[in-house]
């Protein structure tokens, strides 16, 4: 026991030295740490995909089953399909965030483009098994992603390398795609969802963001009110996965003004917190 005292003292001294240097905080550290190291993250993904898999046969058997938040539409003759997001739903891109934290840098979109081109993002737990189960039942996945036009081939390569079923890059609908006249919609997936609905009977939607299911307009309360009629679809037709690393919520406190300093962004984030004393 006594032999460990000098070692402990040295460790404490090193920690205090590090604290005195006051390194800048990275707001994504804990989120990335949880995503990459917690068993809860992996189990949540496996749980969601296992539940979705169990719903496939029921969804197929019900000719009126539809997962689109829009007015009822004629479904007769439409082939079954899924609408799935890609990033942080099927593919894990968080290593890119981890690298930015370690290098003490802001998120780098040039690095993101290189990452997409490498096409080596790994599959998230349970995702491949779910989509393979759907493919065996003749259900076509449509991959709605806010990756940019021109990244379809790299995305196709990555999806295939990870084991996802995909026959054609036409199944990948990027932000602002020309398909369905959706160029002007940008990252809003509503137009793309509606276009898929003209081609197929959508059995399920899977994503990590509210915008993967319906349009994201208004306040948090407004979005909850818009989703309220579909609460019964959660875990049945809509499957939402956790993503604490990024999303529209992350920049909402500072209204997306990315030119602000990190300190200014953090100050705006503090203002929207709801402490109780």
In short:
The protein has eleven helices and five strands, in the order αααβαααβαβαβαβαα. The protein is an alpha/beta fold. Strands 3-2-1-4-5 form a five-stranded parallel β-sheet, with helices on both faces.
Break the fold down into its secondary structure elements and pairings.
Blueprint (H helix, E strand, L loop, with lengths): L3 H18 L7 H9 L1 H23 L17 E6 L9 H9 L6 H10 L8 H10 L3 E5 L7 H11 L9 E2 L16 H10 E8 L12 H8 L10 E3 L7 H4 L10 H11 L5
Parallel strand pairs: 1-2, 1-4, 2-3, 4-5
Helix pairs in contact: 2-3, 2-4, 3-6
Structural commentary:
This protein is of the alpha/beta class and 277 residues long. It has a domain at 39-92 and 123-243: Rossmann fold. Helix content is 44%, strand content 9%. It is built from eleven helices and five strands, in the order H-H-H-E-H-H-H-E-H-E-H-E-H-E-H-H. A five-stranded parallel β-sheet has the order 3-2-1-4-5, with helices on both faces. Helix 2 packs across helix 4 (94-102) and helix 3 (39-61) runs parallel beside helix 6. The longest helix has 23 residues, at 39-61. The protein is globular and about 55 Å long. The model is unreliable at 14-21 (pLDDT under 50).
Which features characterize this protein?
Rossmann fold; five-stranded parallel β-sheet; 5 strands; alpha/beta; 277 residues; 11 helices
């Amino acid at each position: 026991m006594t032999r460990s005292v000098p070692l402990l003292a040295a460790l404490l001294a090193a920690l205090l030295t590090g604290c005195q240097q006051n390194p800048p905080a990275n707001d994504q550290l804990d989120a990335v740490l949880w995503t990459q190291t917690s068993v809860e993250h992996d189990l949540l993904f496996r749980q969601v995909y296992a539940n979705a898999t169990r719903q496939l046969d029921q969804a197929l058997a019900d000719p009126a089953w539809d997962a689109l938040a829009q007015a009822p539409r004629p479904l007769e003759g439409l082939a079954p399909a899924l609408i799935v997001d890609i990033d942080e739903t099927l593919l894990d891109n968080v290593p890119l965030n981890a690298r930015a934290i370690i290098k003490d840098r802001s998120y780098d979109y040039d690095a993101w483009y290189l990452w997409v081109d490498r096409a080596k993002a790994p599959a998230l737990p349970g995702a491949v098994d779910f989509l393979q189960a759907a493919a065996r039942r003749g259900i076509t996945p449509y991959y709605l992603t806010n990756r940019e036009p021109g990244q379809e081939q790299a995305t196709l390569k990555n999806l295939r390398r990870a084991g996802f079923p995909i026959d054609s890059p036409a199944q990948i609908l990027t932000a602002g795609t020309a398909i369905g006249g959706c160029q002007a919609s940008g990252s809003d997936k509503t137009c793309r969802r509606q276009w898929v609905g003209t081609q197929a009977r959508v059995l399920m939607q899977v994503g990590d963001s509210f915008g993967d299911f319906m349009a994201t307009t208004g306040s948090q309360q407004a979005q909850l009110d818009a989703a309220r009629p579909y609460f019964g679809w959660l875990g049945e037709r809509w499957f939402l996965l956790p993503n604490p690393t990024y999303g529209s919520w992350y920049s909402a406190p500072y209204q997306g003004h990315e030119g602000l300093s990190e300190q200014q962004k953090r100050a705006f984030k503090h203002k929207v917190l709801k402490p109780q004393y």
